[in-house]
Amino acid sequence: MTPGLTAAGAGMRIRGGIAAVLAAVDPVLWVVTAGHGGRRGGLVATFVSEASIVPEAPRVAVGLACQHHTRDLVEASGAFALHLLGEDLLDWVWRFGLASGREVEKLAGLETRTAATGAPILAGALGWLDCRVEARVDAGDRTIYLAAVEAGALEEGGDPLTVKRMLALAPPERSREMEGLLARDIEVDRKAIRAWRACRP
After folding, report:
1. Does residue 1 have a pLDDT over 50?
2. Is 7 inside any structural domain?
3. Number of domains, the chain
4. Does a structural domain hold residue 75?
5. Which of 38, 47, 94, 196 is 20 to 30 A from 108 in CA distance terms?
């Protein structure tokens, strides 16, 4: 340990370094949609990654927080659709990110269709992927899904909306709403992670 640096100070320095590394990444925003038994829902996600280099077996890994309605729909249906957003769809971030699907029908008024899995696909997205769950991992605060991509298309030109660009474009009132919801979700996730770690062998 560096002379004069307390354990608490060292911990803060390490956490600061971790935060700096993670902040250097600018994740793409995705809208995840799912449906089951006449119910539909969607949320905004950044935990989305390509999970295969095999052209004939495309896969993605997606992490969804356990408290969300859409995650329940994915569990029930075994499928979901992913959507890339352009800047022209910034309003979708508020639609899918600031309310609960248990309280509002987030897809109301939007044009949708289905492909191979039956998950709702949103018209107007920059691109979409239709995904069927192949495996899942319980990580405490969220479920990580490994899914086969069964269909997809890049529909429009332009760059996908990222977190940093979204924050730069967000009106002040939307930024405040997001900060409040993020603080709430951090507390929920913190408790879930601690409980999960405490139960591990």
Report:
1. no
2. no
3. 1
4. yes
5. 47
pTM of the complete model: 0.90
Determine the structural domain holding residue 173 and report its residue range: 21-199
- The domain that holds 59 is classified in CATH as 2.30.110.10
Each residue's pLDDT tens digit, 31-42? 999 999 999 999
Structure tokens at 171: 């009106």
